[in-house]
Amino acid sequence: MLDDEATAGPKFTGNIPAAREPGAAHGGIMSPQRAQNPGGTLLQLRDVTFSIGAQVILENIDLEIGKGEFVCVVGVSGCGKTTMLRLLAGLLTPTKGAAYYRGAAVSGPQRDIALVFQDYVKALLPWRNAAGNVALALEPTGVPRRARAARIEALLRKVGLEGHATKFPGEMSGGMQQRLQIARCLAQDPAVLLMDEPFGALDAMTRQGLQDEILSIVALSGATGFFVTHDIEEAIYLADRVIGLLPRPGRIGTSFTINLPRPRDQLTTREHPEFLRLRRELLDFVKAHEA
Amino acid sequence: MSAAPRKFDGRGLLVPAGLLVLAELAFWVTGMQSDSLAPPSRVLVAGVNALADGSLILGTAQTLGSALVGVTIGFSLGLGVGIVLGMFRFLDRLLEVAIETIRPVPAIALFPIALLVFGFGYRMEFAIVAFASVWPALILSRAAVASVEPRLFEIARLLQLGFFARTFKIVLPAALPRIVVALRLTVGLALIMAVTIEISSNTIGLGNAMMQAQASLDPARMLAFLVWIGIVGWTLNALMLAAQKRIFGSILSGEAQL
C-alpha cells in the first residue's frame, strides 16, 4: 500500500488534490499497516493505462495485491472497476504498462485465476446440469473421469448445492446459480478469485450468506481475492483493503486498510465502531467526487 | 406452428369441412364438368385409386427421397460453412460479397444447367435441392453461432478450452436450438424445390404424377396428388416440430420455437 502511494502520489497530486482529503482529514486512517503483503506481491498493475480509441478508461494505475490479500474496489459505475478486473484476468491487454502475475507479465487468462461474473444466467451452460457445469472447468485439466465425480460432489457441497447435482441452471434460484458459478470457479483450484459484482443481482439475505461463504472459502484455501462492488458496506465487510476509483478517466483516488478483526460477522462486524468510521470515510470520499 | 401446446379444438375444422360440403353440393346442383376442377368425393376416390395402383407411394418415395438426399448434402455444406463463418468474422467479411452474389440466384434457374449436366432423374433433383438448401443452412447457422452469448466465449478463454472443446462444448450446443429450427425450415424448402423440379419436367415423383394426371385430363387425380403433397409437407413439418420440442422443450423452452 505504501508502495502504491509512493508511485501514484506524484501523479495524482497535480490533477486530483481532492482525492487525498478524506484520508488526510481523519488522520490515522491511512496509517502504515503493511500486514497485507506477508506473502509478497502476487498480482500487480504497473503504470497501466487502458483506452478504447480516444476514450481513456483507466489511467496510470499502479496496484499491488499481496498473496492471500482480499482487495475490494469501489467506485461509481463507469469508473473502470470492471476493466481493471478484466486486465488482471488477462481478458484485456493494457494500452500502456502491463499486468503482472507471479512476477511475469500477463498475456492471457491463467489456469489458476478464476473469475466470477455478476450475470450468472449468461455465465452458466443452460444445457448442462449443475455437475456438468462444474465439470466444464475440470475437463481440460486431465482430471480422470473417476476422480472427477467425487471432486464435483465435494465442490457442490462446499457451496451448499449438495443434492442439486442433476438440476439444470434454469431450475435453480438466482442464489443457487451464483453458487454454482462459484463452484465452477473453485474447480479451477484458483490462487486468485476475481469477482465482478458477484452478488449485485441477489437479494440482501442471500447476499449476506454468500459474503460469509466467500470469506470462509478464501480463508480456507488461502486464495487471493479481488472483488469489484458498488456497495461500500460490502467492500468494508469483506476486504483487507478497499480501493476507491475516480471516474473519467478511471484512476485510484484512495486506498483504505481495513483493520477489522476476522472472522467477520454480519452483526458484530457491521456494528463495530471501526466499521462505521470506515463507512463514513468512504461515503465522504464517494460524495466528494460524485458531481 | 404455435409455441404453446394447445388442446385440439374441433371447431377449427368447421370452416374447411363446410367448404368441402359446399363444393360437393355445387358440383351436383350445377352438374359442372371441368378439366381443372372435380368434386371432393371424386378427388377422394382418385386418391384411393392412386394409393391402390402404387403410384402414390412410389411418387412419395421418389419426392421425399430426393428432397431428403438433397437437403442432407446442402444442409451439411451450409452448416459447416455457416459455423466457420460465424466463428471467424474475418472469413465472413472475406466471403461476404461472393456469397451475396451467388445466393440470390433462384435455385430453379439452375434447372437448365443441371439438366445438361445430369439429365433427367434423381441426380439433377439432388443437385438443385442441395443448392437451394445451402443458403438457409448457411445464413441461419452463421447467425446462430454469431449470436452465442459472448460471455460464454470469455468463459472458454478463462478455462483455457482449446479450439475443439470450444466448438463442441460451447458453440455448437449453444447454437443447436437455432440450427434445428434452420433444419426444419430448410426441409420444408427442400420439399417445395423437389416438387417444383418434378412439375417443371423431371420424370419422377409426386410433381410429375400430378402433371401426368393433368395432361390426361383427369382433374380429380391431379387434385388428389395436390392434396397429398400438402399432407406430406404438413406431416414432415409436424414431425420435425415434435422432435425439436422433445429434444429442447424441457431445457430451452421458448428459446427457439419459431
CATH class wording of the domain at 2-10 and 23-112 and 190-288 in chain A? Alpha Beta
Q: How far is the N terminus from the C terminus of chain A?
A: 27 Å
Determine the CATH superfamily of chain B. Answer: MetI-like
**Morphology call of chain B:** elongated
- Spans of at least 5 consecutive residues with low confidence of chain B: 253-258
Order of helices and strands of chain A: HHEEEHEEEHHHHEHEHEEHH
Rounded mean pLDDT score of chain B: 87
> What is the rounded Rg of chain B?
22 Å
CATH class group of chain B: Mainly Alpha
CATH A-level architecture of chain B: Orthogonal Bundle
CATH topology of the domain at 2-10 and 23-112 and 190-288 in chain A: Rossmann fold
According to CATH, the fold-level topology of chain B is: MetI-like fold
Instruction: Output the structural class of chain A.
Output: alpha/beta
Q: Hey, roughly how much beta strand do the residues of chain A contain?
A: 15-25%
Oligomer: heterodimer
Quick tags:
heterodimer, A: 291 residues, alpha/beta, Rossmann fold, six-stranded mixed beta sheet, four-stranded antiparallel beta sheet, globular, B: 258 residues, mainly alpha, MetI-like fold, 10 helices, 0% strand
Describe this structure in words.
The complex is a heterodimer of chains A (291) and B (258). Chain A is α/β, with parallel strands linked by helices. Chain A has a domain at 2-10 and 23-112 and 190-288: 3-Layer(aba) Sandwich (Rossmann fold). Chain A has 11 helices and 10 strands. Chain A has helices spanning 2-15, 21-25, 81-89, 120-123, 130-138, 145-158, 174-187, 204-221, 232-238, 268-271, 273-288; strands at 41-52, 55-66, 70-74, 96-101, 104-105, 113-116, 192-196, 224-228, 241-246, 251-257. In chain A, strands 6-7-8-3-9-10 form a 6-stranded mixed beta sheet, with helices on both faces. Chain A has a 4-stranded antiparallel beta sheet with strand order 2-1-4-5. In chain A, helix 8 links the parallel strand 7 (192-196) and strand 8 (224-228). Chain A is globular, with a radius of gyration of 19 Å. The model of chain A is unreliable at 1-36 (pLDDT under 50). With 258 residues, chain B is mainly alpha-helical. Chain B has one domain (40-248): MetI-like (MetI-like fold, Orthogonal Bundle), CATH 1.10.3720. In chain B, 77% of the residues lie in helices and 0% in strands. Chain B is built from 10 helices and no strands. In chain B, helix 3 crosses helix 4 and helix 3 (55-87) runs antiparallel to helix 8 (163-200). Chain B starts with 13 loop residues before the first helix and ends in a 10-residue tail after the last helix. The chains are: A alpha/beta (291), B mainly alpha (258).
